Amino acid sequence: xxxxxxxxxxxxxxxxxxxxxxxxxxxxxxxxxxxxxxxxxxxxxxxxxxxxxxxxxxxxxxxxxxxxxxxxxxxxxxxxxxxxxxxxxxxxxxxxxxxxxxxxxxxxxxxxxxxxxxxxxxxxxxxxxxxxxxxxxxxxxxxxxxxxxxxxxxxxxxxxxxxxxxxxxxxxxxxxxxxxxxxxxxxxxxxxxxxxxxxxxxxxxxxxxxxxxxxxxxxxxxxxxxxxxxxxxxxxxxxxxxxxxxxxxxxxxxxxxxxxxxxxxxxxx
Length: 269
What we know:
By secondary structure, the chain is an alpha/beta fold. The chain has helices at 57-63, 103-110, 144-153, 197-203, 220-233, 253-268, and strands spanning 10-21, 24-30, 45-49, 76-80, 83-85, 90-96, 116-120, 134-140, 159-166, 180-187, 212-219, 241-247. The chain has 2 domains: 10-120, Elongation Factor Tu (Ef-tu), domain 3 (Beta Barrel); 134-268, Rossmann fold (3-Layer(aba) Sandwich).
């Protein structure tokens, strides 16, 4: 069995959970456990350690005590910091609601005030320096939190395009963007089938002159096609592109992360 995380998690508490749309749940955590959480990390990754079915908070916290058991027994999943309000010690994390297939989704769909989980992180924010003439933001439902956080951080006079792919019309909602950013929503009802909708639309855009920065994340096959287009056809420098596969059709997160590590090693070889 794998050993416990070397860092101890914060055990954080749910204040409320709300459906933003039929397939997206926003869980707000609050409490003194968030003292010292670093501000300005909207869009950054974090690791969520999920309690086991029926596990009490005392049992969960005991597991992470210095003299607790060494084996890993809790599911760990990667999520995005959507927003943090230091003045009220409130932290928002958005979850895709896609049935009971995954432990994080099951947890979020049942979350009520007082529920808890473990939090590791955050990691570094994805985009912190905005210098482009034009911005391209693209995401499916899994990556909407990083896309929204990036759009909110853009300069007020930014220009660009935002492309969002969601599983239903009811998932289309108001998003804060600079006036110069044009938003397009695409509906792909069956998220378990490969989609070319984002790639086709982005290929059809009038490509601007000047420096382009991107924030693009989502299903692995879509990301692979967009990365090829941006780097090999449009010659956008890699330093100007954040583009990441957050999941892959048919794989759970552990399998997808293993695939990404293998691909990264092959590139470096």
